[in-house]
Amino acid sequence: MTDSSMYKSYQGLPELAGLCSMERAVESEWSLEQSVGRLKRLHYILRRVHEILTAKITAEPIYELKTAFSYHAYLCAEQVSLIRRRVGEMREPPLGLDKVPDSALQRLMDEIEAAPTTAELLVSVYHFLLDEILSSCRRLQADAHPLADAPTVRVARLIGFELGDLAEFGQRAIAQLVDEANHDAMADWIDHLRQCLAAAGGLDGTKPVMNAMPPRWQESVSTCYQKEPARDERFQDPYNAGVNPEAFLYDESFDSQDKTLMMYYKRLREIDVPEMMASILVDLREEEPWDFHMEMSRQLWDEARHAMMGEVGFVSVGIDWTQIPINFTWSRNLNLQLDARQRHGVLFFIEQGLMPRTGKRYEWEVATESGDPLSKLFQDFDWADEVLHAQIGRRWYVPRHQSLQKSLDYGSECWSQVLSHWREYREQGLTDHRNWWPELYQQACEKWGKTPDPRSMAFCTTYEGSRADLERIDPK
Prior knowledge:
Helix 2 crosses helix 11 and helix 11 crosses helix 14. The model has no long low-confidence stretch (mean pLDDT 93). Helix content is 61%, strand content 0%. It has 2 domains: 30-199, Heme Oxygenase, Chain A, CATH 1.20.910; 245-457. By secondary structure, the chain is mostly helical. The chain has helices at residues 22-25, 32-56, 63-88, 103-113, 118-143, 150-177, 180-185, 187-199, 245-249, 256-269, 272-283, 290-317, 329-337, 340-353, 360-370, 373-396, 404-417, 422-427, 437-448, 454-457.
């Protein structure tokens, strides 16, 4: 038999398209069954991480974690879809991807889902679990046949590349939020997770089963989804609906530069969209196929990204956004008053309402006229994102109704059912609906070096009696 190490390619060119050496390629200790088995275990873990992070978005008060969970859940969803496509290429109809591959892995993920505190969740997901996922990806890259199973090697490489960023974020977040004493106190918790993993033969099943499955960390644990949005202390006066930015934005008599402030506010306020969308994904977890969750996760992440655009916008003007009441009653009221299908209807109705010329195109035109290049940039991509979101709605929401018009009518009807509690929140002492606009506008004008427009300064339209599309509602 010819020694493969002596093989010479033409003029010394890299052999086998650069995938590997001939010496490695002649090895045959791999099979399609092994490849599928490891991918299915990775698929299960990543899908559970996606579900866990999505379910934490609404209840997590810290804004930076709320936006990070939105992003990281989406990235996990992308990896899940990548694996699903690859498994589907390997003689696996039906794929069997909805089956739990190992009961010990299920116990592990159930324990992480029930992590008692944010600190335990961060350490469990971003330190313990991500390390195991990345190690499994490296083993898969090394063990899979680099030529015969080149697509799987690529999948493992891509997963490792993208999730490496999550691990880096986690290390930095844990360093800031989990002190050494708390980290030491978690030693037993992490050891418990390791026992669950050992009972599964490791995340990818390549290790011998070392022990029986341990008992649950807490016998009676509630993992009920929290629909009430939580915000950290920087979000002061969150019930405040004393300023209607849409009324200002769509009034053509106001200056375009002044309107950029309202658009930055509208963008930052969009953090309530992930808080609401997460509830749709949680409630419809078993009722919709994976592709629905994949596309909706992308939309959820886009909305979190839009909120960060607003944050950056205020920083660019030199304004402390934490002095502005960032209202959360839209997500709160929808989550507590409507079911998942109704909430989806409202979301679709709003997205479609942004498509005409008076919607996102108008906001981009205002930003262009304002002379603020950052606002123009953000509105350019915000507009593109919303076009995508409208398409997602047409794929997944409209088919449940007899026509596009009926789906729109249903969404509007659902939104009309939502009580704004505008007066009730004031009567309960939760807010006085303070008009924060004049102070914000005055600060911006000082930064811009211009004299405030008296008409803009006097703006005082509230949300009492109207919703964001300026339709009249009962303010009770």
